[in-house]
Amino acid sequence: MGGSVNAGLLSLTKSLAELGVQDQVQVNAVNPGAVRTDRLNVRLQALVRDHHVSLEEAAQKMVHNARTMRLGLPEDVAYLVAFLVSAHGRFVHGALIDIDGGETKTI
To answer: How far apart are the C-alpha atoms of 31 and 26, rounded to whole Å?
Structure first.
């Protein structure tokens, strides 16, 4: 389901970005991957129970299965959003940005 949702999000972002041009409203979408939040901790705890491993081993298993280097931190996403809304990100418009440690392998 993730792929179809992401495609829908990209289409919505592009449509809203087109509308935003006339009013000078910057529109982008941020697509985070596995970020250490309460929601991810629930998934990690399930891995701990199901596979009888430690929390750190469960995190490493998730990283390995996703073929990424690490799990994200909330501040990783916050730094991206801060850039996008700053003067430095003013030319980024109509973009869907994956911030998932390289988990998304599509072009």
So the answer is: 17
Q: What residues pair up with 72 in beta bridges, in sequence order?
A: 35
pLDDT at 95 over 70: yes
- What are the tokens at 15? 């449509």
19-23 mean pLDDT: 90
Lookup result for tokens 């994956």:
98
Range of the domain at 52: 35-70
Are 63 and 83 found together in one domain?
no
Token couple for 70: 């690490």
Q: How far apart are CA 76 and CA 15, in angstroms?
A: 27
CA distance 1 to 22: 33
How many domains, the chain? 2
**pLDDT tens-digit series, residues 46-65:** 999 999 999 999 999 999 99
pTM: 0.83
